[in-house]
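Q: Got a minute? One more chain.
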Amino acid sequence: MSHPPTGFSFTIFPSSRRTALVAAALASAAMIACSDQPTAPSATTSSNSAAASADRFDVSSPASTLEWEATARQLVVNHPTVNPLIAGRVYGLLGVAQYGAVVNSDENDPVSGGRALYEARRGAVAGASATILSYLFPDAAAALESQLASDGAAGPGGTHPHFTSGVATGRMMGAQMVDWASHDGFSAPWNGHPFADPLGGGWLGVTGAAPAGFQFPVMKPYYLTTQQQFRPSSPPVLGSAEFLANLDAVRSAMNARTPADIAMANYWNLSNGTITALGYWDERAAEYIAAANLDERAASHIFAIVNSTALDALIACWDAKYYYMYLRPSMADATITRVPGLPGFPYGLPNHPSYPSGHSCVSASAARVIATYFPEQAATLADQVAEAGRSRVVGGIHFPSDVTAGQALGRAVADWAMAYDQQPGGLLRAVGTH
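A: Always. Here it is, folded:
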């Protein structure tokens, strides 16, 4: 099992749902069924904290973007009904709102630099973030507004006039993303009927329960021309030699599980009650952004492209899932078991088809974008994507072919999105703001 990059840390979340470090999980893996769940990556890394405590009027500081991104991850953790799919939508909407707000602020309130530029940009990020997050988490609206007010009053002399103007610009961009969210197809109701399986993929969902992400195949993407633009080729035909080899690979991984393997599978089990897989990659981006001391515009741009791309990868992934309707390994062989989960965090069988792996779609897309901006981290990111994929096979819920297809899809979506971002108007053209 590879180790998290330098600066990786853990937080004891207020809900106290996760209380042990991965090191403790590894040390006690032989007794894993009775140990505590390792935490998800922290909502605020040590490097982020250093950036936040630095000179708040250094125009090169990305402190506001890092702070509000961390707030979003904590909100995801604190709302256990928010699954990884919902979290992907949250992170995407927030990232685009933040970046659009900074760009609009630079255009509408041009200043030469120094504190005025710093205040205008961080006000824009705060206004956009409070607006879109209050829409997504209405129970947190008062706390979010309090955070915004605290941000404004943090500097000498109280709230700076350029912060105030930035907030107004940010709120307008936040409202645009609220409008986008109200028409993105996410709220489509489930009709109560199971998906058809014309290709004979063999997947069976939970009777009477809405299949997870049932609406994603028809949601509006940011960059893709169609939801099926990067639909992978067919998975191995049931009963074929390739299928049997994949099934045997899952059995072999199950039978060879070590305590470290079990800890690895649980480490990557970033489900409800965690920052989720995309939140994990956002934390890697946050570490690299803080270390490079990128300015607010550069930081918000990276979060915007990482998260909007990952949302498109989810849409493309779920299009493929409900097109192929491919069964889970344990549906083909009832002797295949999942790794034992940890208290409060069961290692469950997801209620959506197996092919391709959603975790791999998201991980590969996010890591591909991050590595483009931080090429010195490419090898580390690639190792983590590979381990995330292996964890799902070891865990007993995916075939190797699911992982391979998911990683390829994620990379393809990332390359498409980054090329789109290089066109006039960049990623903001996707949401009609430029």
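A: Confidence is low (pLDDT under 50) at residues 1-57.
Q: Perfect, thanks.
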